[in-house]
Amino acid sequence: MKGWTASDIPDQTGRTAVVTGANSGLGFVTARELARRGAQVVLACRSEARGAEAAQRIRAQAPGAYVRVAPLDLADLTSVRAFAAEHPGDRLDLLINNAGVMALPRRSTADGFEMQFGVNHLGHFALTGLLLPKLLEAGPGARVVSVSSFMHMLGTVDPRDLNMERGYRRWTAYSRSKSANLLFIHELSRRLRATNARLVAAAAHPGYASTNLQTAAPTMEGRRATKRFMEIGNRYFAQSPGQGALPTLYAATAPDVHQDDFFGPPLQGIWHGSPVRSARAKWTRSDTAARGLWAASERLTGVRYEALAH
């Protein structure tokens, strides 16, 4: 994978991909590059207007690309179910669980979950489970890729307080949600192996990439100094969204990706470079923690992975 870039993405003709949060940042680049290589890409976006603008930009930057927009609000399980039910007969080869929120002030989803845990983990857990039959039918090469963060190193999942009701700390909540992404992929991979499924589940992280995630919370709260600080960091230290999306694109398309792989940029300066297999916290490979989170997630979302039950 040395020197791997978007130009190394294999031909995706005949494949269909869903990319959550595809209207900006890493999701936009991921969707554009998959479409550029021939995939039919569904832009799953909370705002249909911003999704339509993103689709127009993709078509302009990648002539001949096939993209369409479908509404998806991961903070509302009713929206997640509606998205999954929209086109029951469609083929699905790739599900890129990219959308996320970061370091928000305390907020709750439509279903009453802490927002970062609800969007970053529970919404994608439900979406993957509801789309699982399509993914299993797609055959060899089908993938689920969840976008985590190196910030997962700073927070374990507390099964006794998943909604952080004992004291909310925004960065701890974010880190826990990113650990949850990796625990989800770990348990999904185990279940896929146990049923001899050809679907592969992997994860990726972008390193420090310049996106609107860093400025969303300061903008929401009117914290001008913090917003300016984040903007300076993005400008002078972060890598571009194009570079940050490479680990996700590698996990989604490269031939040598295996169950429970985790890709990110190498630790050179500020996480710049082509994708490599990334280090991860030991607790994200804990079978006990992964199974506990899985059981809680099924209970909270009401989504059961019946095709992988055993």
Automatic annotation (TrEMBL):
Keyword field: Oxidoreductase
Gene3D superfamilies: NAD(P)-binding Rossmann-like Domain
GO molecular function term, any single one: oxidoreductase activity
Highest taxon in the source lineage: Bacteria
InterPro entries: NAD(P)-bd_dom_sf (IPR036291), SDR_fam (IPR002347)
NCBIfam families in the record: PRK06197.1 (NF004846)
Family statement drawn from the similarity comment of this UniProt entry: Belongs to the short-chain dehydrogenases/reductases (SDR) family.
Protein name as it appears in the record: Short-chain dehydrogenase
Source organism of this protein record: Streptomyces melanosporofaciens
